């Protein structure tokens, strides 16, 4: 038996746009994803999150699934345009009431709510009239929205995540343009990333000064990173792998823990990388109570003198031209339905990289999971591949704990099959199967496996 610490947090995660549906229900305003999904060709089969898993109406049923599993924590996101339909000022009371009901129902089952403030569904009005995350005022608007959330929910929500995956918003939303708002640029991602960090910093400072002394919760950011393994022992490939990690996770982790961008980004990007004033750097440095990490996969990294980002986005390469980087899979690795390698030792190495670079922070794995081509057969989904994936990654976490890394929790992505962004409903990440025609949920074999892990607090 590989046992975990008694206070280890076992959870599952979702996000508002991916599961809620109810996209115009009870006064919700439109988000950039409501708009983006109407653009022909952007989303697999023209799918959208209009109804998604209808969690907005079925949250009680979904909490019952969590209770059956013995889930300790549930990570969800709050939809900014459900609370503030135009992004600022006028508050939609019915939106507040929805999250009040959700939070109260979770607490009634002793499931700890972990709330993410921004999982990509920016109020459309802020994009159309204000240029969204390109606008240096956006951190102020985000802090206003955060204030609203802390003041209404902070008496019961003690775990806050400001922004989910700033890298994705910057690179996929403003670099490759495959996610909302669909912009393509080699420069905008670095400005957007800068504003997201400032937004996090403003919200965290507000929480710490105005709410934390009374509410006694914690606040962090959830950043995503894959592991980059050098493609060879040669110096240039080793440097390329390290550079790739700096451009992926160091981009956000270094400002949060060291108050500045990685040196390799500053030297390569020059004036394309914005600068923090001394006051901004001081606000961001040390602004997280835990290191939130979303991790899914690993790629081999090689030095390349004229790389291209074109069509490369599923590898999560970023702006390849800025990194002299090429990525590929080891053909020996098994892959998930999305084509991502299943490489648990990459997770273990990344946890060590974070531990060393940021001086032993408390880490929470805020997302980990995989897409499988699941079939519902006679009322059952036998997703052994997903169980194998989880088993490998949870074992890697256990190894990291045994090495002394301060890993505090693990959240499976995802509680439910849901709207997988540009890939629509074609990719199933859930531990519960969702029949989108009937909205019926079926626990997969992986949900039962995970329930046993939670019950035993470890791996057999
Ligand atoms: C993450 C994201 C989630 C989910 C997952 C699976 O990057 O935060 O919303 O879609 O990937 O691809």
Please provide a brief summary of the model.
Helices cover 40% and strands 16% of the residues.
Description:
Helix 8 packs antiparallel against helix 9 and helix 14 packs parallel to helix 15. The protein has one domain: TIM Barrel (Alpha-Beta Barrel), CATH 3.20.20. The protein contains 15 helices and 15 strands. The strands form four sheets. An eight-stranded parallel barrel has the order 2-3-4-5-6-8-11-12, surrounded by five helices. The radius of gyration is 21 Å and the shape is globular. A hairpin with a 4-residue loop joins strand 13 and strand 14. The chain starts with a strand and ends with a strand. 40% of the residues lie in helices and 16% in strands. It has 460 residues and is an alpha/beta fold. It binds beta-D-galactopyranose (GAL). Beta-D-galactopyranose binds next to loops.
Task: Give the secondary structure arrangement, pairings included.
Layout: E1 2-3, E2 9-13, H1 16-19, H2 32-36, H3 55-69, E3 73-77, H4 80-83, H5 93-108, E4 112-118, H6 124-128, H7 138-153, E5 159-164, H8 166-174, H9 188-215, E6 218-224, E7 227-230, H10 235-258, H11 263-269, H12 278-284, E8 291-294, E9 298-303, E10 325-328, H13 344-357, E11 363-368, H14 384-402, E12 407-413, E13 432-435, E14 440-443, H15 445-456, E15 458-459
Parallel strand pairs: 2-3, 2-12, 3-4, 4-5, 5-6, 6-8, 7-9, 8-11, 11-12
Antiparallel strand pairs: 1-15, 9-10, 13-14
Helix pairs in contact: 3-5, 7-9, 8-9, 13-14, 14-15
The structure holds beta-D-galactopyranose (GAL).
């Amino acid at each position: 038996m590989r046992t975990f610490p008694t206070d280890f947090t076992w959870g599952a995660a979702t996000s508002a746009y991916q599961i809620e549906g109810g996209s115009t229900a009870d006064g919700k305003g439109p988000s950039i994803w409501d708009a983006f999904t109407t653009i022909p060709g952007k989303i697999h089969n023209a799918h959208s999150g209009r109804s998604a898993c209808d969690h907005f109406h079925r949250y009680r049923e979904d909490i019952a699934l969590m209770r059956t599993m013995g889930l300790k924590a549930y990570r969800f996101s709050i939809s900014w345009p459900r609370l503030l339909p135009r992004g600022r000022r006028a508050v939609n009371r019915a939106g507040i009431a929805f999250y009040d009901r959700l939070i109260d129902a979770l607490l009634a089952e002793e499931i700890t709510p972990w709330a993410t403030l921004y999982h990509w569904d920016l109020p459309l009005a802020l994009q159309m009239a204000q240029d969204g995350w390109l606008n240096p005022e956006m951190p102020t608007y985000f802090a206003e929205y955060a204030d609203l959330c802390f003041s209404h929910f902070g008496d019961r929500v003690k775990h806050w995540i400001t922004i989910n995956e700033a890298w994705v918003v910057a690179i996929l939303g403003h670099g490759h343009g495959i996610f909302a708002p669909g912009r393509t640029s080699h420069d905008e991602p670095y400005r957007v990333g800068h504003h997201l960090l400032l937004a996090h910093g403003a919200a965290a400072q507000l929480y710490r000064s105005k709410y934390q002394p009374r509410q006694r919760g914690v606040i962090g950011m959830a950043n995503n990173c894959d592991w980059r393994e050098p493609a060879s022992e040669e110096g240039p490939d080793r440097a390329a792998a390290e550079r790739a990690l700096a451009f992926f996770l160091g981009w956000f982790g270094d400002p949060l823990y060291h108050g500045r961008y990685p040196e390799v980004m500053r030297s390569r990007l020059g004036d394309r990388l914005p600068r923090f004033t001394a006051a901004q750097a001081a606000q961001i440095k040390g602004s997280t109570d835990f290191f939130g990490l979303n991790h899914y996969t690993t790629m081999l990294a090689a030095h390349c003198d004229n790389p291209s980002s074109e069509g490369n986005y599923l590898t999560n390469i970023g702006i390849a031209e800025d990194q002299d980087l090429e990525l590929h899979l080891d053909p020996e690795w098994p892959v998930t339905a999305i084509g991502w390698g299943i490489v648990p030792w990459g997770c273990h190495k990344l946890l060590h990289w974070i531990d060393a670079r940021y001086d032993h922070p408390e880490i929470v794995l805020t997302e980990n999971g995989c897409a499988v081509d699941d079939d519902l057969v006679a009322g059952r989904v036998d997703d052994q591949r997903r169980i194998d994936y989880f088993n490998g990654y949870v074992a890697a976490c256990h190894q990291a704990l045994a090495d002394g890394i301060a890993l505090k929790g693990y959240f499976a992505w995802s509680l439910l099959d849901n709207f997988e962004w540009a890939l629509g409903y074609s990719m199933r990440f859930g531990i519960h199967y969702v029949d989108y025609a009937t909205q019926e949920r079926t626990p997969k074999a992986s949900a039962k496996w995970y329930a046993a892990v939670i019950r035993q607090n470890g791996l057999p």
